[in-house]
Amino acid sequence: QVQLVESGGGLVQAGGSLRLSCAASGRPFSWYAMGWFRQAPGKEREFVASFNRSGGSTYYTYYADSVKGRFTMSRDNAKNTVYLQMNSLKPEDTAVYYCAGSVSSAGRSAGEYRYWGQGTQVTVSS
After folding, report:
1. With contact defined as beta carbons under 8 Å apart, do 110 and 97 qualify?
2. What's the whole-number mean pLDDT along residues 101-122?
3. Listed residue (33, 109, 106, 122) closest to 70, CA to CA
4. DSSP string, 46-99
5. What is the pLDDT, as a whole number, of residue 120?
């Protein structure tokens, strides 16, 4: 019943920006963790960013070193939506980006997330 639907992918030039959205339906009473992962052709799925809840409505944000300082994760509880703002995009950021959710503790491993979106393509040209 829980579904994650992603949008916002597209084609941009190097140095440009995109904002990805992930809308959740049939949401559990509360998420513990939400994450973004990406996978390029011929490469393994890699961690990008995540939220992890620690008591009440307090969330901590984590980023992969490869995107730190360029990508920002945010959320809108009223819309049951999380976002990934991507700035200063590079050709190596080209990949299919996936939104993932967990009702328990989850970190940088894809196997820790139970719910996944369908993925959205991000292509950065040089």
Report:
1. no
2. 93
3. 122
4. EEEEEEEE-STT-EEEEE-TTTTTTEEEEEEGGGTEEEEEE-S--GGG-EEEEE
5. 97
Instruction: Tell how far CA 24 is from the center of its chain.
Output: 12
User: Per residue in 78-114, is it b (16+ CB within 10 Å) or e — as a string?
Assistant: eeebbbbebeebeeebbbbbbbbbbbeebeeebeebe
- CA–CA separation, 46 vs 60, rounded Å? 19
Q: How would you class 44 by CB atoms within 10 Å of its CB: exposed for 0-12, middle for 13-18, buried for 19 or more?
A: exposed
Q: What is the pLDDT of residues 57-85, one digit of tens each?
A: 788 999 999 999 999 999 988 888 999 99
Half-sphere exposure of 117 (CA within 13 A, CB side): 28
With tokens 């139970």, the residue in question is: 114
pLDDT digits (tens, 9 = 90+) for 25-66: 876 557 789 999 999 999 999 999 999 988 777 889 999 999
CA–chain centroid gap for 82, Å, is 8
